[in-house]
Design goal:
The chain has 310 residues and is of the alpha+beta class. It has helices spanning 7-15, 22-28, 31-44, 131-144, 181-185, 299-307, and strands at 59-63, 69-70, 84-94, 99-103, 112-115, 124-129, 171-172, 175-180, 209-216, 219-226, 237-241, 244-250, 288-298. Strands 1, 2, 3, 4, 5, 6, 7, 8, 9, 10, 11, 12 and 13 form a 13-stranded antiparallel beta sheet that branches. Helix 1 (7-15) crosses helix 3 (31-44).
């Protein structure tokens, strides 16, 4: 049947289906066709993060403990309990490597976490679909009149379902855990005098800017750690945790990274955010800043985040 319809029409029709339908389409149609339709769907559902006019983000990068990592909040109602998050917008679909790349909003203050000087290790760094994206998907499913679906709104403000966390699957209830917040905090120098068990693993050397990658088999988070001081060069340091590789290294321009990374927009610069230099917004000093640059997910992992909401 497909060979009787022009490919452009096939791709257009498929690109109109809700995001949660793509996993099923991959089971019945050629992968290269669905990949291209997914690219069209994602591109038409968003715009450049550097643009002043854009649609809603697909995912949120969430800190579950404000005492460890806190993101700037545009208004007082945007935080859920002890959480804060950065919205992530579609940037590119790398079809050869089958990776969806997302950027934060570099044109706003919503692209970094403030790393607090707190010696606690309870929080996690998560990925979850945004609430507005879930609402859009639900509306699309209703329009297509797909039977057997539960459309009750059980989502929290940022698009996550609350409760029922007794299962221990990596992707569960539309979220994935990337790392402990302590894995980020311990890469920065302590601001308090003395040391004790559980304190920062930061060495006596320090530098202003360090690249950091949180890597799983199906997900990559590229970031930059900004430290308060710039004394000596820091040698490359690799810290391994269960199922997650966290690498910090001296700032460089490695164009040979694998998988290949999309180029960051020109409006982005690795520097302490202007908000953090304004006394009106900061009542205490931070031990550093976690600037998020890119987030990449394999196509199945990306779709799985949305499928698990239903």
């Amino acid at each position: 049947m497909l060979d009787r319809v022009p490919l452009e029409i096939v791709l257009y029709i498929i690109s109109l289906v809700p995001l949660t339908t793509f996993s099923t389409l991959y089971q019945v149609l050629p992968e290269h066709i669905i990949d291209e339709a997914l690219r069209i769907h994602l591109s038409s559902s968003s715009s450049s993060p550097s643009s002043t006019v854009r649609l809603q983000p697909f995912l949120n990068l969430v800190s579950t403990n404000l005492c460890e990592l806190s993101a700037p909040r545009p208004d007082a109602s945007c935080w859920l309990k002890n959480e804060s998050w950065l919205p992530l917008y579609f940037s590119k679909l790398d079809i050869p490597n089958r990776i969806v790349w997302l950027f934060p909003s570099f044109s706003s203050q919503q692209h970094y976490f403030r790393v607090e000087d707190a010696y606690v290790s309870h929080g996690k760094l998560l990925l979850r679909p945004s609430s507005t994206r879930i609402i859009t998907i639900e509306e699309g499913r209703r329009k297509m009149m797909i039977p057997g679906m539960d459309y009750h709104d059980n989502n929290s403000k940022d698009g996550s379902k609350v409760g029922n966390h007794h299962h221990h699957h990596h992707y569960k209830k539309g979220k994935t855990t990337l790392a402990s917040l302590w894995d980020i905090r311990k890469q920065l120098p302590p601001t308090r005098a003395g040391t004790f068990s559980g304190a920062s693993e930061f060495t006596t050397q320090s530098q202003l800017c360090r690249e950091m990658t949180i890597e799983r088999s199906d997900c990559w988070v590229d970031a930059c750690l900004l430290c308060p001081s710039n004394n000596k060069q820091m040698e490359e340091e690799v810290t391994r945790t269960t199922a997650t590789t966290i690498t910090t290294k001296q700032q460089n321009n490695n164009s040979g990274e694998q998988p290949p990374r999309p180029i960051l927009p020109k409006c982005y610069a690795r520097k302490i955010p202007a908000r953090e230099r304004d006394p009106a917004f900061t009542s205490s000093s931070a031990c550093g800043y976690f600037l998020v640059e890119r987030v990449g997910l394999k196509i199945p992992a990306f779709l799985d985040l949305f499928d698990h909401h239903y």
